[in-house]
Amino acid sequence: MSLVSLRLVVATILAAIGAAAFVIGLDYDFGSATRMGPGYFPLVLSGLLTVLALAEAVSAVLKPDPDDSPTLDWRPLVAILGAVGGFAVAISLFGLVPAFFVVILFSTLSERGYGWLPATVLSLVTCFAAWLLFSRLLGITLPLFRWGL
């Protein structure tokens, strides 16, 4: 399979996911920019995903890459999927702060040569920013630390 057709297939799949999420999101109240309803964020994100995926599909057809040998680097794929799964498990079992440490740890594994010190600093800053955003600014009561179900 050439790189053009691979890019086109992936862009089509992403556009279909975005369009399906957009249609599902139409069932929720949209609200306004100042008073967002439950459908505002899903509709905006799914619309953005669909538009970007269609732009990539057009780009794949109009400007094919000269290199027709697609290679897949498994390290970032596994690391990012592990980060998403690890976040889901960690937030339900241990709370917000450990979940952010898990997601940053797995995400930094996707990049070769990324050290432990930058990952730790990034985790601390992200945990603080998440606490500030969710707990203080938005008033969402997410447990910072928890043990078990």
Class based on secondary structure composition and strand pairing: mainly alpha
User: How many structural domains?
Assistant: 2
Q: Looking at the structure, what is the overall shape?
A: flat
Estimate the strand proportion. Answer: under 5%
Largest sheet: none
Portion in helices: 55-70%
Query: Which ranges are low-confidence, i.e. pLDDT below 50, for 5 or more consecutive residues?
Result: none
What order do the helices and strands follow?
A: HHHHH
In angstroms, what separates the terminal alpha carbons?
Answer: 46 Å
Number of helices: 5
Please provide the count of β strands.
Answer: 0
Structural Rg: 19 Å
- pLDDT averaged over residues: 85
Protein model, in words:
The mean pLDDT is 85. With 149 residues, this protein is mostly helical. It has helices at 3-25, 40-62, 74-93, 96-108, 116-137. The protein has five helices and no strands. Helices cover 68% and strands 0% of the residues. It has two domains: 3-62; 74-137, no CATH class.
Write the layout of secondary structure elements.
Layout: H1 3-25, H2 40-62, H3 74-93, H4 96-108, H5 116-137
Helix pairs in contact: 1-2, 3-4, 4-5
Key terms:
mainly alpha; 149 residues; flat
Q: What's the short version?
A:
This protein is mostly helical and 149 residues long. Helices cover 68% and strands 0% of the residues.
